[in-house]
Amino acid sequence: MTEARVLVVDDKENMRKLLAKILADGYAVETAEDGARALALVATRPYDVVVTDIKMPGADGFELLQAVKARAPETEVVLMTGYATVADAVRAMKEGAFDYLEKPFDPDAALAVVARAAEHKRLADAARSTAAPGEVASFHNLVGRSPRMHEVYALLDKAAGLDITVLLLGETGTGKELAARAIHYHSARRERRFVAVNCGALPGELVESELFGHARGAFTGAAGAKPGLFEEAAGGTIFLDEVGELPLAAQVKLNRALQEREIRRVGDTQPVKIDVRVIAATHRDLREEVRAGRFREDLFYRLHVFPVTLPPLRERAEDVPLLAAHFVEKHARAIRRDVTGFEPEALRRLAGYAWPGNVRELENAVERAVAVAPGPLVRVADLPPEVAAAVPGAPDPATLAKLPYREAVEQARDRISREYLVALLAEFGGNVTRAAERAGMERESLHRLLRKYGLRSDDFK
């Protein structure tokens, strides 16, 4: 087996030497004295694991983590700090770190963390290399293997290769920012900045200044010139989340920026050329907003070049077990809890809930469950009350009411069938033979049903 490649980054020479010695037996180790040198190495050669200090001059560990995940999302990152806090740990995990080490650390503990990270990377590489096209379970940080998500992955991959404006549509919590990052990090602009802007959170009187910058003296308090977020994203991507919340005056300027590829700072007379890809997102129906006079029609058509709709979780319920398992692993590592999965009934309740808040609500529910679970498996009692009270197999009435009768009946039947299979596999831990016996059918018949509903027995083991 080829030795895993590990990069150790720390501004203290004695720490670099210590870790290199600990990892010398079994790993190909290189070192870097700061974040800048580490970035240069990561840009030119592949690593399985990067172990980096948080507190460093110049680029700190969090900046390095973000850069590594931008260039090589599959590389695992372990953060080290002498000032560890729970907040640091949670932030590290949310931003994609595999784990963290508190200084001073036990050499055996450090070796064990790196070994787990390297093994996780090896297994992920093996899964990617052997998976059939229909078995793809993720795209960048989006997770799901349902037919709906495969369609989304194909569109995002195509969008990444085309340097055009993309409009991401879908309900709140469906993963629009993750989709935007996936496009950026798979595009030719991946080496430059990804700047995310929540348009709904910008103060109305400062929207134009934040997006396009301002000249000195443009308004009270403008003591100096300031570039806007479009200029900060030069050469990269700007993500305009909740673009439907922009005031009409800012919409005019955004439309001009898209049309002319230039912006003008507030209070300035000279335009500034920009080279930025725009990805916008909204949970609103922009066509309805145009009809209501709240959104400019010309801007709508400039944004609606390459639309991609992220499906709500209730329309890809077969992804719930996979997502739940992903979030258990993520949050158990973040808060260092020995929680590994779900009791069968808890998984059935997750599958039976309609998830109005979509993937974001599911993640929050799993994070809470991991925090309160007294043992290695999440119980029904550990779930939020509204999820624990879900009736497995019950179709979502609001969705069904919008469909023709025959289609509604078919969807209800499909959902009940899918959730029956989820409960069956959960009960027998993914053992298809025992599940088939309980269902009173041949193993091949059960396999055909699993394929039809996008389920894999391995997800329940």
Question: What does this protein look like?
Answer:
A hairpin with a 2-residue loop joins strand 6 (138-139) and strand 7 (142-143). The strands form five sheets. A five-stranded parallel beta sheet has the order 2-1-3-4-5, sandwiched between helices. It has a five-stranded parallel beta sheet with strand order 9-10-13-8-14. A two-stranded antiparallel ribbon has the order 6-7. Helix content is 46%, strand content 14%. The protein has helices at residues 13-23, 35-44, 61-71, 86-94, 107-130, 147-160, 176-185, 207-212, 229-232, 248-260, 286-291, 297-303, 320-335, 344-352, 358-372, 385-388, 397-400, 405-427, 432-439, 443-452; strands at 4-9, 27-32, 49-53, 76-81, 99-102, 138-139, 142-143, 166-169, 194-198, 237-241, 262-263, 272-273, 277-282, 306-309, 341-342, 377-378. This is Acetoacetate metabolism regulatory protein AtoC. Residues 5-118 form the Response regulatory domain.
